[in-house]
Amino acid sequence: MTALQKLVYTGYARRLRKRLDGANLPRHLAMVMDGNRRWARQMGFEDARVGHRYGAEHLDEVLGWCVEMGIRHVTVFVASVDNVRKRDAGEVGNLMRMIEEVVAERLSRPSSVWRLHLAGRLEVLPDSTRDALKLAADSTRDAPGVLAESTGDGGFHLNIAIGYDGREEIVTAIRSLLDEEASAGYSAADIAQRLTAERIAAHLYTGGQPDPDLVIRTSGERRTSGFLLWQAAYSELHFCDVYWPGFRKVDFLRALRSYAARNRRFGA
């Protein structure tokens, strides 16, 4: 990018940001971070797996944009159960290392404002990845953004969906609710009468958090791939043609602008 292009880009980003002052912005933003390998090939890297490192490092920057815009709940789709089980072992191993070395390490820093929540079947992950993510989740319980909850502003919460399957999440939530009810001594008939959407939602990975208002998917794919099937029932969707490592701040701001201009009807 030339100096002139940088100047134009900076000015455009500033105007986009200004137009969002006072706009209706999502409380909860969900993102499918797609296109890491395709971006690496596009950039001329011989090993497309390099894209995973760039993608992992880019998450840190995008989370900074979310803080700037006051978006306090973010969920990112890192890898599905099928991604972990069916892709080439070398690629999966590289992705897991990136998660351990970049995502978990950076979120664990004292300067991080994010409280980390894990969403998915952690047992399908390598031991080292599972341990690194659990350690990061434990260490962020007292993050500055979490301590801010005592002032009533809610703090900042990041859900990492890894080893994730949307259908399985719903099954797991219902099973957890049924086990809880049975342990309390309720009969099958009583449990059926007490079953509600709200009570099931409380047992999802994101239980206690607002449903996502906006779901962004990069790379040009027009599908959600089972991401947050329950929670995203009434979410607004935004599909962006750029690959995840190339997802710029102007792309982010355009997605927010599109969301702010929509009249949400929640199925009405």
TrEMBL record:
Its EC number is 2.5.1.-. Keywords: Magnesium, Metal-binding, Transferase. It holds the Pfam family Prenyltransf. This is Isoprenyl transferase. Binds 2 magnesium ions per subunit. One of its GO terms (molecular function) is transferase activity. It is an enzyme of class 2 (transferase). Substrate binds at residues 35-39, 52, 80-82, 87, 217, 223-225. Catalyzes the condensation of isopentenyl diphosphate (IPP) with allylic pyrophosphates generating different type of terpenoids. The active site is at 34, 83 (proton acceptor). PROSITE patterns: UPP_SYNTHASE. Homodimer. Its cofactor is Mg(2+). Mg(2+) binds at residues 34, 236. InterPro entries: UPP_synth-like, UPP_synth-like_CS, UPP_synth-like_sf. Belongs to the UPP synthase family. Z-FPP synthase subfamily.
